[in-house]
Amino acid sequence: MFKALVLKKEPEFWVGLESLQSVELQAGQVRLGVKYSSLNYKDALAITNTAPVVRSWPMVAGIDGVGVVMESKDPDWAVGEWAIHNGWGMGETSFGLMAQQAVVPGRGLVRLPQSLTALESMAIGTAGYTAMLCVMALERHGVVPSSGEVLVTGASGGVGSMSVALLSSLGYSVVASSGKSEEHGFLRDLGAKEVIDRALLSEAGKPLQKERFAGVIDSVGSNTLANALAQTKYAGVVAACGLAQGADLPTTVMPFILRSVSLVGIDSVMAPIALRQEAWTRLAKDLDLAKLKRITQVVSLQGAVQKAQALRQGLLKGRWVVEVSE
Predict the structure, then answer these.
(1) Distance (Å, rounded) from C-alpha 28 to C-alpha 286?
(2) Is residue 120 in some structural domain?
(3) Do 133 and 261 fall into the same domain?
(4) Does 249 score more than 80 pLDDT?
(5) Is residue 142 within 8 Å of 174, Cβ to Cβ?
(6) Cα separation, 314 vs 99, whole angstroms
(7) Domain range spanning residue 59?
(8) What integer pLDDT is reported at residue 51 of this predicted model?
(9) How far is CA 178 from the centre of its chain?
């Protein structure tokens, strides 16, 4: 038996700790003794039942986890190895990793880099892993530090704050957009050169505006993404990975056909394993772990419920690690 944070839908929504029974492994599966999970925005939506994240009930929460292999029916994984899991529908369509044990497909795991602790890996979590995928997309399209300013929208959130930290560590000039004036100092500490009010981007604007940004990492969508596109310089790149403001994109083809702007979609859930491994290798090498430590806090499995409510309401900053092996 092991403890897990369980979500139930009927007769009414319920979330709480339960003891579950271990299940037998199938071919290709690995049983992880989970040490830490992390609290992401998607987890908050699931735990508070405020968006249709969960598609199979009941559910164990948690899209992220790190732990040690307890049992393996995958030849690539041996008992005692440390592994990271991100995404792949866990916490949505199959039991997640806010649990002391998790059964996962071995082919979806990434080895914990030697230079990272288990706690650091979940402080990074899907937020940092997604941010690294965005940075890599900018690099692939030729955006380098000398190209000019890079805009990060939703900068106070998980992906945004990790993007600011990563980009600044790599030498980029970062402009952070946030609606929280009290977080401006926090974002400058992470390395933002300038912090602008999100209101400058959140309303409908012209399809082409004054060119400013060589690159953009956007986790907001809607008018914010449209305005970011309109302010991207010729041949610039926008990496889109979220929809905090909305899933709509009220723009025109003008930035694409008159300024040769590229809009690159970033998906972390089903990204191929080779890309995941590259991202985690880069994170271990490029992220300033001192900055990560300053923005990381740890909460218990039970405490994750309250923090999920706060995250959903935009009241949390930084990264929250869930200790599940207590």
Answers:
(1) 32
(2) no
(3) yes
(4) yes
(5) no
(6) 25
(7) 2-112+295-323
(8) 87
(9) 17
Candidate from 96-105, 128-137, 278-287, 304-313 with smallest mean pLDDT? 304-313
Same domain, 309 and 253: no
Per-residue pLDDT, averaged over 299-315, amounts to 90
Residues 242 and 314 occupy one common structural domain: no
Per-residue pLDDT at 326 exceeds 80: no
Q: Does residue 233 share a domain with residue 150?
A: yes
Residue 104: beta bridge partners? 30
Query: Is 186 domain-assigned?
Result: yes
- Does any domain span residue 315? yes
Taking the CA atoms of residue 252, residue 257, residue 261 and residue 267 in that order, the dihedral angle to the nearest 10 degrees is 60
Which residue type, as a one-letter code, is found at position 154?
G
- Mean local confidence (pLDDT), 99-122: 96
Q: How far apart are CA 150 and CA 236, in angstroms?
A: 10
Domains in the chain: how many in total? 2
Residue closest to 314 by CA, chosen among 154, 129, 127? 154
The answer as to whether 204 is a domain residue is yes
Per-residue tokens: 33 = 């003794």
Cβ of 160: how many Cβ atoms within 10 Å?
27
Q: What is the CATH number of the domain that holds 157?
A: 3.40.50.720
What is the C-alpha separation between 322 and 155, in angstroms, rounded? 22
Residue 109 has pLDDT above 80, yes or no: yes
232 plus 255 within the same structural domain:
yes
Q: Residues near 10 by Cβ (< 8 Å), separated by ≥ 6?
A: 57
CATH code at 82?
3.90.180.10
pLDDT digits (tens, 9 = 90+) for 24-48: 999 999 999 999 999 998 999 999 9
| Cβ–Cβ under 8 Å, residues 296 and 186 | no
